[in-house]
Amino acid sequence: MRNIIHPRNFIVIIILECALLTTIVSQQFMTIPSAYSAASNNTQSLRMNGPINSLQYSSDGNVSWIVSGRWRMDAAFDNVGNTPTTVKNFNVSLIAVPPDGSNTQRYQLSDFKQDLISYDNKTKTSSIKGKLTMTTDDQSIKDIEVILKLINKNIFSITLDSSKTRELLGETPIYGIER
Predict the structure, then answer these.
(1) Which segments in the chain show pLDDT lower than 50?
(2) Predicted pLDDT of residue 137
(3) Which of 24, 59, 107, 109 is most buried, by CB atoms within 10 Å?
(4) In angstroms, rounded to a whole number, what is the distance separating the alpha carbons of residues 92 and 125?
């Protein structure tokens, strides 16, 4: 018995094969969805946030403060997704307690103005320099120089100009993680 394909069936098979081939080829060139959303200027935007848990040391190596809190920022990354191009809406809420637990201080870091961004491919670290305002219950300190670091988009650090914040938060970076 001989299998003969009817011409009408042959055309249907060709159409289905073309559709399958088109689907496979187009999938090769599609961007895989991720945590980023593509913006119109070839950047990827991401809302980043997480907890802060850090020990702040004085220049003599002693713990000055135990710091906890939350941070948040909106970052636009280059089209590869490694280097931030802009940082907006950076906000931090902190609670600092000395090691003896005698006093609790609350701080807000806000009004961030970005100056310079760099990226180190070897360490996968983004460094974002700028200025911000630190607010406590009884004072507001403006134009504090700051370096924000994002290491492998997972570890976050805040290094404040210690000449303005030494007595409030010690002299070492404040660390957190990105969730």
Answers:
(1) 18-40
(2) 87
(3) 109
(4) 20
